Amino acid sequence: MSLSLDKAFGVLPSAVLIKARRAELLASNLANVDTPNYKSRDFHFTEVLAEVEGMSNRMKLATTRANHLTNEIDKSRALEPELLYRIPAQPSLDGNTVDPQLERAAFTENTTHYQSTLEFLDRRVSSLRKALSKE
Amino acid sequence: MSDLFRIFNTSASALTAQSVRLNTVASNMANAAMTASTAEDTYRAKHVLFQTVIDQEDPNGVAMPVRVAGIVDDECEPIPTYEPNHPHANEEGYVFRPAINVVEEMANMMSASRSYEANVEVLTTARSLLQRTLQVGQS
Question: Which pTM was predicted?
Fold first, then answer.
């Protein structure tokens, strides 16, 4: 039996990385809350995760030879997600679209998700350890 | 985990920018009651200009710290008042006072301190997330 750690951890490591990325992005938005013309940005967590995991529902190009071009996403580059712009509920005169309450809520939500993913990862590690150790 | 580390950089830049803003507000409030005999000698209210910078380390990334691009003088003309008995009065009996609205400055101060608090909160959260990440598998 071969043990693949990648398989054992499943989607969790990618999820942690994407959530860390999102935390950084939301921190950027909060840092620029008073910067004129700064546009608040965010990305879709589930879409990015689906792309990293190769489960995206975007159409794949049919390839019949190994050297044909594909539109598959390089896994290492998929962690640079396509950043979208938030649509402001209330336009402000200085062109800034950061809504501090909304960003704070998003940051808190992302933090909670990050922590719960870590918790799952932690459980996974300890159950692997338990399986590998002799009693 | 370098992403979480970059939060420190981003939020710290915001803390610096907001404290510069608080400093200018303090300076404006302190000089609000200042008087002068000429319009040129009167204190001008200072305003900070914030600017987003692209992180050199991560040009395609998402970290966008903020910096103070400059501090500019207020355009408002000083307010002349006729007070011939004032020690700063000029020959025509006028004293010049800076056009500083203290209420406006107070609002500015509140806004700066709220933003500062929000960024401190982000920093604290990022630190605890990092600590928790380092503890994965230790239990």
Answer: 0.82
